[in-house]
Amino acid sequence: MRRLRYFIGLIIIILIFGVIIFYPLPSLLEWQSVLLKRCFSILFFCALFCLWRIIKGPTPADRAVAIDILGILVLGFCAILGIPTGRDWYIDIGIAWALQSFISTLALAKYLEGRNFDE
Amino acid sequence: MNETIGMFFIIVGLTFDFFGCLGLIRLPDVYNRLQASTKCVTLGTCSILLGLFLFKGFTAAGIKAILCILFIILTAPVSAHALARGAHKSGVKLWGKSVCDKYAEDKGVNS
Fold first, then answer.
1. Phi, psi at residue B101, to the nearest 5°?
2. Which residue of A has its CA nearest to B68?
3. Which of A8, A52, A56, A69 is the best substitution to test chain B (most B C-beta atoms within 10 A)?
4. What does the DSSP 8-state code read for residue A87?
5. Can you tell me the distance from the alpha carbon of B68 to that of B85, in angstroms, rounded to the nearest whole number?
6. Do A82 and B61 touch (CB under 8 A)?
7. CB contact (8 A) between residue B17 and residue A42
8. Taking the model in full, what pTM does it have?
9. SS3 track for B63-89
10. C-alpha distances in Å from residue A114, one per residue of A34, A60, A108, A118, B93
11. CB contact under 8 A, A114 and B83
12. Digit-coded pLDDT (tens) for A56-95
């Protein structure tokens, strides 16, 4: 029963990837921008998984881990958005978001230890 | 040619991102989730940024992508170690089937 459940889940994941990436492209001239939009939808699924873990995490440490992962994923969002739109300042937003995520993750870890901030 | 190689790197990075977030959902423990998701998502995002560099070439955006790769490689393990240490000190218990706990043994010997 357990192996059957694993098998069904694996088939569903492979189907999602296949439909998103290998669905027939509308025209051969613009295949790069269309494919990048589909890649963007895969990152959207990843962000939904992180939000589900933030909502349903049993302990506060789970929520801190999910916030850390979401902060790195937003950098991938900004990097992919810069290619089809042709605007170079999305990667600047990504750099600023990575700095802010790193500092906030260190503050959350210090809060989880249960001490004061000045040791 | 550069753009095709860049698309290949971006799709590889998206696959790593997806399986990292799947591990964030499926695994049973805080430490397992941290160990699975942090490494996979770091490598996937570095691969996406390398694809952006192959698209843009040596312009301002490409150099910023290389700087982002260096920054992510330096800071993601630091935040992961800090989160694991904070979770262990705040008293989150391990999974029932875990084999050993080296950090608790070291603390017991020292104090």
1. -135, 90
2. A95
3. A69
4. -
5. 26
6. yes
7. yes
8. 0.84
9. HHHHHHHHHHHHHHHHHHHHHHHHHHH
10. 48, 12, 10, 12, 16
11. no
12. 878 888 899 999 999 999 998 888 888 888 788 889 998 9
Give the pLDDT confidence of B73-110 residue by residue, as tens digits: 999 999 999 998 888 888 788 888 888 888 778 777 65
Q: Please give the structure tokens belonging to residue A5.
A: 């459940």
- CA A1 to chain B, closest CA, distance in angstroms equals 17
Q: Which of A35, A45, A72 comes nearest B7 by C-beta?
A: A35
* Site of tokens 């042709």: A86
Which amino acid is it at A59?
T
Tokens representing residue A73 in the block: 């994923």
Residues A81, B99: Cα–Cα separation, whole Å: 44
The DSSP call for residue A114 is T
- Residues in chain B with CB shorter than 8 Å from the CB of A88 are 56, 59-61
Q: How far apart are CA A51 and CA A43, in angstroms?
A: 13
Q: Which two tokens stand for residue A100?
A: 């802010």
Q: For residues B40 and B20, what is the distance between their CA atoms, to the nearest angstrom? A: 5
